[in-house]
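Lecture 7 notes: from sequence to structure.

We start with a single chain of 231 residues. Read the sequence below before looking at the structure.
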Amino acid sequence: MPTLKDIAKKLNLSVSTVSKGLSGASDVSMKTRQEILGTAVKIGYVPKQAKSDTAPKRICVFIENMGYERVEQFGYDIIIGFKLEAAAKKWDVSIMPLAMNEEAKYDYDEFMVANNYSAGFLLGFNLHNDFIKQLDKTNIPTVLLDNVVYNKNVACVGVDNRQGIFYAVEHLVNLGHKKIAMLNGETVSMVSDERLQGFLSGMRAFGLETDEKLIANGDYTSDMADKYVSS
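Now the structure, written as tokens:
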């Protein structure tokens, strides 16, 4: 695995200068720091975990297109559970909310190295997002929820979305409902496609007619739900 010495050798700098550049020390010029960051990313440098057993290790959670601050929001339990488990392992968690479909203003690996993050967790992103595209070549250990990226450094976790929505339709049918609507996620999303297929499969299985006017797409926020429910 690449080290500070490898970066220093390529740039003809001292190891101490490279270390200070990565930590954002004020006595290293912005130009030199950018060269250090660029080289670090190019050779696949990943910040080491803190050596001290008592020092927290850092992980960044990027979240887009998903509410998480209130208990009724989709991402709330995910974030709480993640933070609790991270705290037990002595990891320090930073939350980085991004505007929906915001174009990446920086390189993912450069950002992680510059801020001394050892790993990342991404929630709520669609497959066409700039961040997802960057994960094809990232060297940073990263976990992606409900999306797939084929990179040895990226782990992808999720649930059986299709079967889950099928069970939701079955539950509503058992309650006596026949006219069932679906508020899905974004159209350009693997998860949304799986859930739609589960919904359509459930409607067919129980002999219910599907009304396309009752199928809508949005994001996982309460404002979006209010918009469609009120209309």
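The two ends are 56 Å apart (CA to CA). Keep this in mind for problem set 3.
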